[in-house]
UniProtKB/TrEMBL annotation, chain A:
Residue span(s) of domain Response regulatory: 4-125
Gene Ontology terms, MF aspect: DNA binding
S-adenosyl-L-methionine in keyword set: no
Species annotation: Streptomyces tardus
Domain (HTH luxR-type) ranges: 145-215
Protein's UniProt name: Response regulator transcription factor
Keyword Transcription regulation set for record: yes
SUPFAM superfamilies per record: CheY-like
From TrEMBL, chain B:
E.C. no: 2.7.13.3
Enzyme class: transferase
Domain Putative sensor: from-to ranges: 29-188
Name of the protein in question: histidine kinase
Membrane-spanning segments: 27-46, 52-77, 119-149, 155-177
Cellular component GO terms held in the UniProt record: membrane
Organism annotation: Streptomyces tardus
Keyword ATP-binding listed: yes
GO molecular function, one term: protein dimerization activity
Domain of life, per lineage: Bacteria
Catalytic activity reported: ATP + protein L-histidine = ADP + protein N-phospho-L-histidine
Signal peptide stretch: none
CDD domains per UniProt: HATPase_UhpB-NarQ-NarX-like
């Protein structure tokens, strides 16, 4: 089932590239706009399954895109949003993830688009209600070594970091050269050490990523 | 660091302080204060009495004007005396009269705001300061002498007390001298508008220079972001689209994957270059976020505690950011510390920053450890910096920059 995607990006060349890429992933682009106001209008009119937006956009040329994304998520609960940015900033990530419990949110550096396979995974994960956070943010957070995360072993921190990037268990196992059972064990340990409630697996993954961001 | 004021000198090792000239300078300062104060009190009393008595016949205005103008002399003497306990000279805030002669001089002085500040200072000196000088000297030196003189078998505990007071006297005398100097400086220092035209111009041009430097960096950062980086991202999309066309195990796919990895490395390099030029977080999110960001990339753990009521003016924000990042870089480079911390608050009209570490200390501003580089920025912002870095550590950099941020 192809996703109905809205794309907001003010640089024309990049916007066209993104549209083309999303089409090639087998999804439909129902709106491609160049500023935050048009974005809000497009989402209201079309109710897309996923919104991909740049942070810095007209009319303010500040964080208009991000603000529009946050507002849209508040106005349309459950609307998946993937935000692309030229640089990562922790408060941006937190603001975004604070909407709708962090489900269906992605925050990536723009340059990650080039790694198409990973980008496609991210797009589809966010649309399915998952959480994807750029490795750059994760690295910064893990290096600070804040309290609840100190209880995690280095390997578990690594697994949590990759989880935050939106990798599935199978991808995780392949990336770390370990068995699926070992991945499950690490993830189980993470959930226990972060005191996450027993719930559906997907939601606990989101909560684990949020714990990482808020630490 | 060599102390510049009597107060700073008290922070020295007690032995170095006691063998330095500072206690003696402070003593001279206070003794002079008594002398000047007594003379000024006499002149003022005489002038006031004469003025009030003669006011009936109107000539009394002359002695009163004389009283006002004599405070200019008191202030001039005070500025000179201040050099005893504060090595940074106070410039004379008075303007040169437009024409020679007493009339022009008096007319100029009476119209200057600083003259009235000096009058207030002189009144306070006459009313209180010199009495306090006398009191401090009498307590810390006179009292012990009296007690020693009257020593006998009954009063010996008082003699011991006298000895203790005398031993403490270098500190007692210096601390009051320091307080008095700070007080005098507050009244007698030129306000901005009173600084000589030349000095003001130098300061302004230095600020302009740093400002245009910063503006240029911001411009380059924007150019890189809006130009180069956007093109690279578009290039990445093009490569990505080609990769979708390439069969997974073909040499083309391998080549494209390699190209993508190199592109990612270029992006990472570009991002760190841009951050070094002028961090975009600073422009978009302000000082606290930018310092947090810097700290998160820093090799050592840094506790950042910056609470600012709102965004600071741009030159101040930029200056403070470079100051903090430079100070932290010094920590990483020289101190051997395990932790560092940054603390910042707005206190009425001052931005107060402290950067500290748990390292080995011994930072010397003169040895090109990067501390001197901070000084230029500070001067342009009219800030002050103090560094405490005893051998063995820890190092603390304390910065105060005037701003209306509260």
């Amino acid at each position: 089932m192809p996703l109905r995607v809205a794309v907001a990006e003010d640089a024309v060349l990049l916007r066209e590239g993104l549209v083309e890429l999303v089409r090639r992933f087998g999804h439909r682009v129902i709106a491609a706009v160049g500023d935050a106001e048009a974005l809000v209008a497009a989402v209201a009119a079309e109710r897309p399954d996923l919104l991909i937006t740049d942070v810095r956009m007209p009319p303010g040329d500040a964080d208009d895109g991000l603000r529009a994304a946050v507002e849209l998520r508040l106005a349309h609960p459950g609307l998946p949003v993937l935000v692309l940015s030229q640089y990562v900033e922790r408060s941006c990530a937190t603001r975004l993830l604070d909407t709708g419990g962090g489900a269906g949110v992605g925050y990536l550096l723009k340059e990650r688009i080039a790694a198409v396979a990973d980008f496609r995974t991210a797009v589809e994960r966010v649309a399915a209600g998952g959480t994807v956070v750029d490795p750059e943010v994760i690295n910064q957070l893990l290096r600070r070594g804040p309290d609840p995360l100190e209880r995690l072993s280095p390997r578990e921190q690594e697994v949590l970091g990759l989880m935050a990037q939106g990798l599935s268990n199978a991808n995780l196992a392949a990336r770390l050269f370990i068995s699926a059972a070992a991945v499950n064990k690490h993830i189980g340990n993470i959930f226990t050490k972060l005191d996450l409630p027993v719930d559906t697996d997907g939601h606990r993954r989101v909560l684990a990523v949020l714990a990482l961001l808020r630490a | 660091m060599r102390p510049r004021t009597a107060w700073q000198a008290m922070a020295l090792h007690p032995l170095s302080f006691l063998t330095s000239a500072w206690p003696w300078r402070s003593l001279a300062y206070l003794a002079g204060g008594v002398l000047v104060g007594a003379v000024a009190a006499l002149v003022f009393a005489a002038g006031l009495v004469a003025g009030v008595v003669l006011l009936v016949v109107l000539v009394g205005v002359a002695p009163l004007v004389g009283v006002v103008l004599s405070s200019v002399t008191v202030a001039a003497v005070e500025r000179r005396r201040l050099r005893l306990v504060d090595l940074d000279a106070l410039p004379d805030p008075h303007r040169a009269p437009p024409a020679p002669g007493l009339r022009a001089w008096a007319a100029t002085r009476l119209r200057e705001q600083v003259t009235w500040r000096e009058l207030l200072f002189t009144l306070l000196s006459v009313a209180a300061l010199w009495w306090l000088d006398l009191l401090v000297l009498a307590f810390s030196l006179g009292l012990p002498v009296l007690l020693f003189a009257s020593t006998d078998s009954q009063t010996w505990p008082w003699t011991v007390f006298g000895a203790i007071v005398l031993l403490a006297s270098p500190y007692t005398v210096t601390s009051w001298a320091g307080a008095r100097a700070a007080f005098a400086r507050t009244f007698l220092a030129p306000r901005d508008a009173e600084l000589g035209e030349a000095l003001r111009e130098v300061r302004a041009s230095r600020a302009r220079l740093i400002d245009s430097f910063d503006a240029e960096r911001v411009r380059i950062e924007r150019d890189l972001h809006d130009g180069v980086q956007q093109h690279l991202v578009s290039l990445g999309v093009t490569l990505g689209l080609m990769r979708l066309d390439a069969p997974d195990d073909s040499p083309l796919a391998t080549g494209l994957d390699e190209a993508e990895r190199r592109l990612a490395a270029t992006h990472a390099e570009l991002r760190s270059l841009v951050r070094g030029l002028h961090p975009p977080v600073l422009t978009d999110h302000g000082l606290a976020a930018a310092v947090e960001d810097f700290a998160a990339r820093f090799p050592l753990p840094v506790d950042v505690d910056l609470v600012l009521p709102r965004r600071l003016p741009r030159p101040l924000e930029t200056g403070a950011y470079y100051l903090i990042s430079e100070a932290l870089t010094n920590v990483a480079r020289h101190s051997g510390a395990n932790r560092a911390w940054v603390h910042g608050r707005c206190r009425s009209d001052l931005l107060v920053l402290e950067i500290g570490d748990d390292g080995c200390g011994g930072a010397e501003p003169d040895e090109g450890t990067g501390l001197t580089g901070l000084a230029d920025r500070l001067t342009a912002l009219e800030g002050r910096m103090r560094i405490s870095s005893p051998v063995g550590g820890p190092t603390l950099v304390h910065v105060e920059i005037p701003c209306r941020c509260a």
